[in-house]
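Folds abound. Consider this:
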Amino acid sequence: MENKKRNYKIIAISAAVTLLIFFASLFYLYRDYLVKPFLEMEGTIPAASTILMRAAILGAMSYYLLRKWFKQEVIYTSDAYFLFGTMFGIFAYAKLFDLFWNLIFIGKSFSEEFLLILLKIRYFIIIINALPILYLALESTLTLANLYKKKELDRKQFNSIKLRIIIVYTIIISIYIIIVPTYAMLSYSLPFITMIIFLCIAIMFFFMYKNKRLSQANGLLIGLAFVFFIISNAFRPILSWSLMTYGVMLAEIIDTGINFLMFIGFITKPPYAKSKIK
């Protein structure tokens, strides 16, 4: 088990360092274009600082959860600590890409075709970011479904169903992202699709909380966080367009609070779990 932990630590550290080098290189290569918004538009500095602050907070959340995962005697990649830690970690790097995207967009130095490519990459990151939480939600939901079946699924069937759902979800959304021809169509349609998925995940966590099937985390708080996240994302384009850089800053502050609620929901056990301990 110690060898397994050491290998996972090497993978985690290598991935983190590689991504940092990648983004450092990306920002360096496009530095002339990224500086332009700071010189021409008021509010760019506080907006960029807010995005970096959120990335740092998400990184700290990821580190905390993965550290707790590594401290366990036995570790599994299906464990909630690992899944949530991975989700927050991916999210942290996604915010670095968001910073790059916002500066490129505000600078208006590139064609719509290039912006479309960046937007497609941005949504691919969103899809990847949703996979760990989708896996956890499916794990708990399918466990609950077994209670109502006359014949219980074995672990192999169980994993097969989860894998199929995740693969189908990933393939369908990925194909849609690839074939969408215009920037406007992608920016307006895909958020609607992803919000439906996040709503399903929220319902799953509410369902688990109601049926007392998730004792490691507070499904109610996590479900509420996803609902707030959906509402925030629905109003984010309007907010960002109407107030530009200050709107981006306000949206990032709101979303940071939502991420913190999700984090609290994970590290806080639900009332029914506490009563069982007593």
